[in-house]
Design a protein that fits this description.
- Keywords: Amino-acid biosynthesis, Aromatic amino acid biosynthesis, Transferase.
- The chain has eleven helices and ten strands.
- The chain is α/β, with parallel strands linked by helices.
- It is about 35% helix and about 15% strand.
- The protein is globular, with a radius of gyration of 20 Å.
- The chain binds erythose-4-phosphate and phosphoenolpyruvate (PEP).
- The site of erythose-4-phosphate has 9 residues, from loops.
Length: about 350
Amino acid sequence: MTTPETDAVSDQRIDRVVPLTTPALLHHDLPLDAPLASAVLAGRRAVGRVLDRADDRLLVVVGPCSVHDPAAALEYAGRLREAADRLSDDLLVVMRVYFEKPRSTVGWKGLINDPRLDGSGDVNTGLRIARTLLLDVLRLGLPVGCEFLDPITPQYIADTVGWGAIGARTVESQVHRQLASGLSMPIGMKNRPDGSIATAVDAIRAAGVPHVFPGIDVSGTPAIMHTRGNADGHLVLRGGNDGPNYDAESVAGALDLLRAAGLPERVVIDASHANSGKDHRRQPVVAEDVAAQLAAGQRGIVGIMLESFLEPGRQDLDPTRELEYGKSITDACLGWSQTEQVLTGLAHSVRARRATLPTPA
Ligand SMILES: O=C[C@H](O)[C@H](O)COP(=O)(O)O
Ligand SMILES: C=C(OP(=O)(O)O)C(=O)O
């Protein structure tokens, strides 16, 4: 029996509750068929081989800071696919297809949360658009990379994902470390926004072992998840409040921390975020420095992340103005032509690094 008192206890700050579709329903409507599932598995294996240095190519996670217009993202994917094919001897290209944006304070939280870009929060539509695009990008022949932010959304989309990230703002969170321990793909742990690398190293260790925690299963039913641990965790250096951490000295320091923790000595360098001061024009500078480290024989750098879209820069989400096609509404991105130049330069440096290694007998 409810009374005014019992009614007044719960959900006092919940304005509305709207039913959410289940993961199983979304999978039913938008299935990952057998050929696409094979492509996802091949992508994950390829990433794993680069991380383990069984493959001497460079992992490149490249694409928009966030997807807000699936048509533009798909056009981008078409261009990236051609570049990825051309450079596939040296680069393993994964497209950033980011739908969940962690905000420093407030702001648009990504296409899953708000697909209409107007605060209406139609998550059902957001999930549907996101899964459709993920399948489309896979069909084009590119593995996809996502940040996992919400602990519920992975059941809706994670089957399509070849590489995942836990972001700088959530890397210390037990919820996200547990989540990573159960995710099926390699997960990059970013250093904290204040620059703490030790926190990301802790996250790799925490996600590397089994956990038990409440979650939802694919039918949407509350479930107790018993995970196996994720052995493919790795560090992503994205710079911090006190400056960048992509330089050779920072990389060496990060590799030392990993060694001391008994973890594989491998890092991915994020050329954007605090490594570029969010100025897209600095991403090529970071990439050149990384390329020089590779050419000098640094094998600890296994990958790089670039924020890139069709058009350079960024634009504000302003409801009174039409958005410019192919331009980021979150962080500033490299434009396409510059992206191609950066990718070509990285491929050269991978060849130079290969030349520094002894030829196998
Ligand atoms: O990658 C995107 C942003 O850097 C991240 O979401 C934080 O953005 P904000 O500081 O503008 O909120
Ligand atoms: C939010 C992101 O990065 P970070 O967590 O490093 O700020 C991102 O890569 O979109």
